[in-house]
Write a structure and sequence with these properties.
Distance between the termini of chain A: 26 Å
Largest interface: A-B, 45 and 54 residues
Largest sheet of chain A: 7 strands, mixed
Radius of gyration of chain A: 17 Å
Number of strands of chain A: 7
Oligomer: heterodimer
Shape of chain A: globular
Helix content of chain A: 10-25%
Distance between the termini of chain B: 17 Å
Order of helices and strands of chain A: EHHEEHEEEE
Number of strands of chain B: 22
Structural class of chain A: alpha+beta
Structural class of chain B: alpha+beta
Helix content of chain B: 25-40%
Chain lengths: ~190, ~450
């Protein structure tokens, strides 16, 4: 494993937007349908319809959230540390998580009230036909119990959505959170 | 019990009012009191040994990570002579942070305010415009270095204390070393931290996770009920209170406040398979269910690095969860993977105070350095899924502690006492080889009470 203190210059740690240059323009049919899919997904999660959410996931799903690290000097831009994550999940572990939520998961019972705001969505075609890179900004407001103060989290999502039949399904998601020390007291919610 | 000098808070409360040694109770107000918090920073966090990092985080000369000892920030560095140093991250000139990054590599740390520079060992190199003596002429250069803490590396874990002349690290560990060796010093190359730690902040006092880490076994049954529902702890959701094999074992503790819960491997094994441990040799048992993080190939290293008694314990009734006083949780847990295999989770947490009502939860995740890459990958994934930010076990803990904190502020509820009255008294199981205070059978409050006694003793010392 690459040591993070001394890691040589590597592109992987650098924050960057879309990889593909085959942009799907705003307002096109594919763009609109993908945006609609992101909105539907946010609604499914905010309304805690986890079965509906799981139905939007591909079975080869990889769902990760690398930690960020405050760095300076020549390494100041290489702050996405993929050697350690807040989420390191696949389809079966996501099913384990959603399954747990239907039982004694006190971290979400009573459940959080959440609003996921999805913006700045950019889409590009992947090399594989029918797959699209979708980069978006995520802002989550989370209300717990009767606490008057919300916990919040901002992040960029880097997704790959795949056209399956007439629906888009999530095959990859990397959540680039903005805080190196999270202010959200746990991640019992999905991002 | 020694009578010691103590303190009196502004409203007249004494340490003996807060920690009631005669009835084994602790007033809930200790979890929110600001005055007490300030005393804790002086009497505990500026005095005792604290875990900061692991040496695999800083393998090369100049590597550093920035961590905290209480609310004092420090730079943990490795110098050209391979020595590890812990220095206060405060420029002696005007108090600016000398290092503004969390990690990196630097052979000199230069303050961005006025340019004073320091070596990885904390010594002063110089200030700009040497000929004009920008660093002044009252103190010699040897007096202008960063303030340094006393350092001890154990099993790769980097500990430090500000109490330069105080108790040695061995005195701090006490009888627990025998058990901790089984976790941290068992293979030739030891443990490796798999990446920078997860860090997150919770709205609660550091002592809430701190006292739970004193081997609170009770909360497993209720708060972590989902483990039983998932079949991880043995038993089922229906039989949680009648049949919970994960609740029986031997809790080990000591007067320094550390503790570990040792759970029988045979019982753990039954959770995975019906094959019996009976009549099996130590070697056979280890091969059937190696401790979390140990592959079959690494088993010979256990015999090399540990005594026969230590290996036998590791194969029979290994330590799995517990804590080191004041703010460390050890989680070396057998945990099944979602694909049906069993690897486990190796994690350590520190609970770093961020004021009387906030704590930073730092999750360090490990694997044995000599384990194959695929095993490290599995350990990482399993540890992330069970512990820390998104871990299904610790999500529940993190949601509970802030509510205890909230209650500790109520003018009436602050005077409620926490009860540590399910006490068993220590008792040595037949044939037990290790030292310390031993509590066999169903988990009880003894180890947590020992945590509070360690707290009491440090807080009583002015």
């Amino acid at each position: 494993m690459v040591n993070y203190a001394t890691a040589a210059v590597e592109k992987a740690g650098v924050m960057r937007g879309l990889v593909s240059t085959n942009r799907v323009p705003l307002g096109s049919e594919i763009y609109n349908r993908l945006l609609e899919t992101l909105y539907d997904e946010a609604a499914a999660l905010d309304e805690r319809r986890f079965d509906d959410w799981v139905a939007m996931l591909e079975e080869d799903l990889l769902y990760t959230a690398p930690v960020r690290l405050t760095r300076n000097g020549p390494n100041k831009d290489r702050d996405v540390m993929r050697t350690m994550m807040h989420f390191d999940d696949n389809y079966s572990s996501i099913l384990m998580r959603t399954g747990r939520l239907s039982k004694s998961a006190w971290a979400e019972d009573p459940p959080s009230r959440t609003r996921r705001f999805v913006t700045n969505t950019r889409v590009a075609e992947c090399e594989t036909a029918g797959e699209y890179e979708v980069s978006s900004y995520l802002y989550v407001e989370r209300s717990r119990f009767d606490v008057a103060h919300n916990e919040t989290l901002s992040a960029e999502r880097r997704d790959i959505w795949r056209l399956v039949g007439d629906a888009y399904k999530l095959a990859r998601r990397e959540i680039i959170v903005d805080q190196s020390t999270l202010g959200m007291s746990n991640l019992a919610i999905f991002l | 019990m020694l009578q010691k000098a103590t303190f009196t808070l502004a409203d007249g409360a004494t340490l003996d009012d807060l920690v009631k040694r005669d009835t084994n109770e602790v007033m809930l107000r200790v979890m929110s009191d600001e005055e007490l918090y300030k005393l804790e920073m002086e009497r505990i966090f500026a005095k005792t040994w604290l875990l900061l990092a692991h040496d695999t985080e800083i393998p090369k000369a100049g590597d550093f990570v920035v961590r905290d000892m209480g609310e004092d920030q420090v730079i943990v560095t490795r110098d050209r002579n391979d020595e590890i140093h812990v220095s206060l991250n405060v420029c002696p000139h005007r108090g600016m942070k000398v290092c503004t990054a969390e990690a990196g590599n630097a052979h000199a740390h230069r303050c961005i305010y006025h340019g004073w520079a320091f070596r990885p060992d904390g010594s002063f190199i110089g200030a700009p415009v040497e000929k004009e003596q920008m660093h002044g002429n009252r103190l010699g250069k040897d007096q202008l270095g960063l303030k340094k803490a006393r350092v001890q590396v154990y099993g790769g874990l980097i500990f430090a204390t500000w109490d330069i002349e105080g108790p040695s690290f061995d005195e701090y560990l006490g009888d627990m070393k025998y058990y901790l060796d089984q976790l941290f010093c068992r293979t030739d190359s030891g443990l490796e931290m798999l990446g920078p730690p997860q860090r997150f902040v919770l709205p609660c006092n550091w002592k809430i996770p701190g006292e739970q880490s004193g081997s609170d076994g009770f909360h497993t049954l209720t708060l972590h009920r989902s483990l039983m529902e998932g079949g991880v702890m043995g038993g089922t959701a229906e039989s949680i209170y009648d049949n919970a094999p994960g609740m029986y074992g031997v809790d080990v503790s000591c007067e320094q406040g550390h503790s570990l819960r040792c759970l029988e491997a045979a019982q753990t094994f039954k959770m995975f398979s019906d094959i019996s441990f009976e009549g099996k040799s130590v070697e056979e048992r280890l091969a059937m269910l190696p401790p979390p993080g140990i592959t079959k190939e690494l088993i010979p290293q256990l015999f090399k690095n540990l005594s026969a008694d230590q290996v036998e314990q590791l194969a029979t009734i290994p330590p799995q969860v517990g804590g080191l006083f004041p703010n460390i949780l050890v989680a070396f847990i057998f945990a099944p993977r979602t694909d049906g295999g069993s690897s486990g989770a190796l994690a350590l947490h520190t609970y770093v105070p961020r004021g009387p009502d906030k704590v930073e939860f730092i999750n360090f995740i490990f694997a044995e350095k000599d384990a194959p890459e695929q095993v490290k990958r599995d350990m990482l994934q399993n540890s992330i899924q069970q512990t820390g930010t998104s871990g299904i076990i610790e999500q529940d803990d993190a949601d509970t502690w802030p509510q205890i904190m909230r209650n500790a502020r109520g003018v009436v509820s602050k005077d409620i006492t926490l009860k540590y009255q399910a006490l068993h008294g220590h008792e040595r199981p037949e044939g037990w080889k290790g030292g310390g205070l031993l509590y066999p059978g169903f988990t009880k409050d003894d180890t947590q009470w020992n945590w509070w006694m360690a707290y009491y003793n440090l807080m009583a010392e002015a």
